[in-house]
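Notes from the 1:1 (GR / supervisor)

We went over the backlog. Supervisor wanted to see one worked example end to end before approving the batch request, so GR pasted a single chain during the call. The sequence is below; no edits were made to it. Supervisor asked that the structure be written out right there so they could see what the output format looks like.
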Amino acid sequence: MSSFFFFCSSAQNEIFGSLLVLVATRKYICPMIVATDTISSSKPFIVDCLALNTFPHSTPHDNTEPDNFRVLLDRIPIPSFIVDSRLIIFHTNSAASKTFNIDSSSYGNLSFLSLVSRDFQSDVEDYLRSPPEKFEEYTLSTYLIQETIQIPVELTVTTTKNPPQGLVIYASDLSRHMRTSGTPVDTDQIFRLLVETSNVAGMLVVDDKYRFVYVNKKFASMVGSTVSDMIGHDFRNWVHPDDVGLVAGRYEARQRGTHVPPVYDFRIIRADDHDERILRIHSTVLVGLDRITYTAAMAIDVTEEAKGRQKLEESEHKYLTLVETMTSGLAVDTPDGTIKFVNSTLVRMLGYSSEDELVGQPITKMLAGWTMETVRETLVRRQAGVVEQYEANLLTKTGDQIPVIVSVTPLYDSDGQYSGSLAVFTDVSEIKAADTEIRFLLDLLLHDVGNQLQLVLAGTDLLGFARTPEESLTATSYIKDGVNRCLNIISNVRRAEATKVEPPRPIDIVEVLKEECSLLQRQLDVTPVIKELPESQTIRADSALGHLLRNLLENAVKHNPRPDKKIWIRGRNIDSWFELCISDNGPGLPDWKKKELFNPQRRYGGVGLHLVQKIAKKYSARIRVRDRVEGHPKEGLEVCIRFPHMYLDYT
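Structure output shown during the call:
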């Protein structure tokens, strides 16, 4: 924008000449008529002055008559200031003096920046130190201080030679127009003021050549630059290299008319300290009067929010990982006993495929023996803040029960109200099994070994009363037999313990079986009859396989009272199993005893069959007991074990 000065004389008036100054701006033409007394050559005075929205930009003043210029300036109703290169005030017009309480004694000592609101001083200083041509391009909206009141103003600047390299600053009071005018012009000023002075959001407009055509001071501050350094420059210069593709891609898509998400985050590199920041931008497009498609956007700095969110996500991930990888099951329920969270460990423990099968169900669904009355009783203790630990049984999807230790803690919301409980379920199946094993072995030593010691004591008593060599030999055999049985029990217990730690490996069961048959023949003088058996068969087993087969063979002989003891062996592949069957011609067992034969609590076969059961379980083998001749139990017993096939990869 520019100013035009026209000098003319009036033919109708011999006393007065007139000076018509037409002030042209982008939007307005505002006349200001100044009359000069040509007879007395007195100082000019204002005949008429229309209220201006802003004082115009102009070319640098000649100032050949500085006194006349200052007198003219004094007649303008807009607060005006003349400052030097240091921005020290050298003159103010009456409007400025009155509005900001400045007198001539302050000239040369008062900085114009001292009148600017502290939050905007740096922006005003940047603007006033801009190259002169910048004053032709734009004005600056800011706040000046009137005592304790902040007045919204729009600054317009021209250069002056007096003082050297000085400036004339015109401060148009926008608050006056906000109060008294309701025209679209004033509304535009209001919105401009809000945008320019925003301390929250950065505002920007980009043309169709990637160039900033407008940025407010807040956005310039966000990127560590100044408004003058950004206008006309490519916005990609401030975007983080890794995010240029994202930001430019969406800008280009909007230019083509393609819909893209208007809100997104991207990183920028600040120009002043090279710090990386994260901005959240809300973009839209508008078409100007020049038919160019512009991108207008509002940006806020969300760096701290993003860092906080990242820390929260990292914390959540850490705790979620902890919850999902813990070896114990975890569940959270509501005050009424409804399950609202379970971790994956608990889902697996209970045999379900997804947590959705449990969430929303009553807690009684997975606690065996619990009723809603039990839930109500525990609710009273939870609301009282009681932390408990107790034993319970979890109910699996298939109806099996898992012994667990339950550790329960009450939960409270932000208002201190009871919101449910958190329970940790520790599977103690192995502990229970070990406890059962210990009790079994202890009972075995107290019962079975005790019985054999009774046999030894009986033989000792008999030996004391023996009168013939035959009686002494019989008593001695009792003692030896009892001692040997005790040693055999102890040996089997040791074997049972040894099977716990040795890892399974590929073993040819046919080769091991033949060795055990040969040993049986030498020790007990019984030769098994092999009816059907492959030349070799590999299964996954360990060194205890021989003990398993030996106990089955010895059990078939030792519990057979017939003088002509016989054992038959057959082995075959059935589907994915190898089945080995050992049968005898002993007295057999009734059906109810068949079911209990391998029960360690009953011990019909002593510790030997208990050892067979433990080893078979380790090999994932299945044991079945039946009549050798179906329907005729007195014809003998048959024990079959199915071992899963092992497929070897020799590649």
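Supervisor's comment: The longest helix spans residues 429-465.
Batch request approved.
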